[in-house]
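Protocol step 4 of 6: structure prediction from sequence.
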Amino acid sequence: MDVVQGFGSKYETMNRAPEKAILVGLNSDALEPDERSDEVTMAELEALLETAGGVTCGVTLQHRPTPDPGSFIGAGKVKEVKEAVEANGCDLVVFDNELSPSQMRVLSEELGVKVLDRSGLILDIFAGRAKTREGRLQVELAQYKYLLPRLVGMWSHLVRQTASGGSRIGTRGPGETQLESDRRHIHRKINALEEELSEVRRVRATQRRLREKNSVSTVALVGYTNAGKSTLLNALTDSDIQTGDRLFDTLDTTTRRMRLDDTLEVLLSDTVGFIRKLPHQLVEAFKATLEELQFADVIVHVIDVSNPEWEKQAEVVDKLIAELGASETPRVEVYNKCDKPGAAGIFAKDGAVKVSAITGEGLDELKKKIFDILSAGVKTLDLMIPYDKGGLLDVLHKECKVLQSEYTDTGVAVKAVCPAGVYGKIREYVV
């Protein structure tokens, strides 16, 4: 048995028969507040299971002072869950909390079915949704990092072959040898994937330098999963990107051009949605995509205000933006889906914009907000650059947006959109 053979098969589309599952969550004061389960996170877990192609047969939310070190939920609750599994003919038990490798092994043995935690379920969804090579590389890297500490549990069948603490004849050695072999193999795969993703970052950096040279500003759409980012991008750029009312509908970054006025065109990028308890492996793996946030000129935080939990969801996104090093980037908060009944009576705070990507309400105001941020201190100037000051042309092409240029008898006539920081260098050549 080679546990890493065929690991990439999860890239297949999710057209398999639905698996039946029992969902389990634990609310304990011993857990960090954002790791605890409640009715809201369990409903979100049910939506994740549906996205993955599964069917929920039952939900169990347990309250106890501390997690059980062995089975996480304790022997009594394990027995109760097992009865529910057998009664409903379930194939799977999904935990809303993250399980340790040993807890996952114990639960699998006790329940007699496959056990996943929230991180494993999200990784499975990402594996089925990633379309581009870059997206698949990122998912595969996250999967291997998730799998590595769980290898011991996957080799527990070798431990069960021993009796009274001693190995039977013919079972000494191979388990450890195979385990170490798999560890080495996975470490090699992780190193290779990280090198490929480093190349992706290098290519992105080159593209970013070209955009900066051509003075093309970038605007990044971020937000909680299913907040309506892709629909908003379609509305702002007259695109027809496929959208859907489901979690993680967008995994691969999509970029389109958006014209703000006659002189300013920007690149608008859609990014993968965030979610509570996002596996840290995915945050790391998707930095090649999400690092665009660090270099965006403006971040547009899209918030689904029709969702009763919109304030908590916004906090999750704010926290991840800070983790990705983009907290200082100018930001516009967008209260999306304001046409829905659940959004009635919600007032946008100062600086925020209420919009509906479906009806078009508020889109012009949003464009103006973005334009105001990007054009702060920016002037459109007519310049006459003498031929002996040719170096200034390089400055204009590098730091400004040159709209037109014409060579004359006395110099180069240039019309350019210039930021305030450049004005001092070229002030005396303004016509």
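Step 5 (inspection) to follow. The longest strand covers residues 54-63.
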